Amino acid sequence: MTEQFVSLLQGPLFILPLNVAAFLFGLQLYRRSGTALLHPIVGASALVAAVLWSLDIDYTDYQDASGLLYALLGPAVVALAIPLKQNLGIIRRAGWPLAVTLVVGAVLAPVVAIVIALLAGAARPVLLALAGKAVTTPIALAVADKIHAAQSLTVGIVVFSGVVAAVLGPALLRWLGIEDHRILGFALGINAHAIGTARALEISALCGAFAALAMGLCGALTALALPLLTGAGA
């Protein structure tokens, strides 16, 4: 391949359309299959990974070329305030139970992962990346930069854990006899962040509102506390 062609493949003129096309492919696959196992993120990620591997495109180049999409993550998360506003009265009435659940969930989600990783002999970079697993991608990127964790590994863990929780979470909670959309949404927001919130919005607006609330508060709590706990805030 010529140098100009290689430069084109590594630039936004190729990478951004690839991301859009991959997501549309994943979305169609998800709708036609009717199974949560083929979440759009799963199909899109698999297609992008296959293209990057086949064309020998370095992940760093891919990440740099996807800068516009990274910049749009923040506004997309802010837009989730709409279902919050629509269900504000219901959320206020559940204030204290939500606060307790938030603190417990925000602590347990990364701690359990870190303990398992420690028992498996994981190195410090993996442990730092796991520390941000309970927050959505824009916040995870900022936290990873603050605590000096590998951003690519952090994002991979966030996306993977989000997809698994979004796919298995609703079925697991129903199996446990939990049908309340408030509980389901809050659990998805803490454990599956943005992907879980998107899944919650498919269930109901109420479920999506509680998922957005949990995702936002859990992200804020983690962003404030984690750098201090790891010593990076000094």
Explain briefly what this protein structure is:
The chain is an all-alpha fold. Helices cover 82% and strands 0% of the residues. The chain is globular.
Order of helices and strands: HHHHHHHHHHHHH
Shape summary: globular
Q: For the report, how would you describe the main beta sheet?
A: none
Strand content: under 5%
* Number of structural domains: 2
Count of individual helical segments: 13
Q: Which helices and strands appear, and what pairs or packs with what?
A:
Blueprint: H1 3-9, H2 12-33, H3 40-54, H4 59-65, H5 67-78, H6 81-86, H7 88-93, H8 95-119, H9 124-131, H10 137-147, H11 151-175, H12 181-203, H13 205-229
Name its key features.
13 helices; 234 residues; single chain; 2 domains; mainly alpha; globular
What does this structure look like?
- There is one protein chain.
- With 234 residues, this protein is mostly helical.
- It has 2 domains: 63 residues, no CATH class; 149 residues, no CATH class.
- It is 82% helix and 0% strand.
- The chain is globular and about 65 Å long.
